[in-house]
Specification:
With 160 residues, the chain is mainly beta. The protein has a single domain, classed as Nucleic acid-binding proteins (OB fold (Dihydrolipoamide Acetyltransferase, E2P), Beta Barrel). It contains 1 helix and 8 strands. Strand 3 and strand 4 form a beta hairpin. About 19% of the residues have low confidence.
């Protein structure tokens, strides 16, 4: 049997701080909502429509999102749609469609970075850890670069 295609790519801002929970088996799962804007013209007038998407991220990916992403943070996510159904406390059948995140990227611009070019931690205004960012090892006064073996960071400092 052939598989069908279920792929979602979204760019937007977090509506609230992500929350983390744990399954009975101890697996972590993060929940957050993403607001994505669409601009269009109607009768020559510029309009904007915002859509809100519920997202979940499992295990280490979810833990990283909770640790480094805060309300207002602009991110790009890649994942798939998943439908869940349940019965509420009154016996009514309910369902929802959510995005299961497989990958994400920080998309904040320069204005949202600290003095080292890393994304600022919105909760504490301290630099966030080095995630998906290549360090620039340039000494502008002499014009020379550090050699490849001169990386001042150890593998223990990488959060994943």
């Amino acid at each position: 049997m052939a598989s069908d295609l279920n792929k979602v790519i979204l760019v937007g801002r977090l509506v609230r701080d992500p929350e983390i929970r744990y399954t009975q088996g101890g697996t972590s799962v993060a929940n957050f909502s993403l607001a994505s804007n669409r601009t269009y013209l109607q009768n020559g007038e510029k309009k904007e429509l915002t859509s809100f998407f519920n997202c979940i991220a499992w295990s280490k990916l979810g833990e990283i999102i909770v640790q480094y992403c805060k309300k207002g943070r602009r991110v790009g996510i890649e994942g798939r749609l998943q439908q869940r159904a349940w019965e509420d406390k009154d016996g009514n059948k309910r369902s929802t469609v959510e995005v299961v995140v497989d990958n994400f990227q920080f998309l904040d611009g320069k204005r949202d970075e600290d003095e080292y070019g890393k994304p600022a931690d919105y909760g504490t205004n301290k630099p966030a850890a080095d995630l998906n960012y290549q360090e620039k090892f340039e000494d502008n006064s002499s014009g020379s670069n550090l050699e490849a073996g001169d990386n001042p960071f150890s593998d223990e400092e990488i959060p994943f």
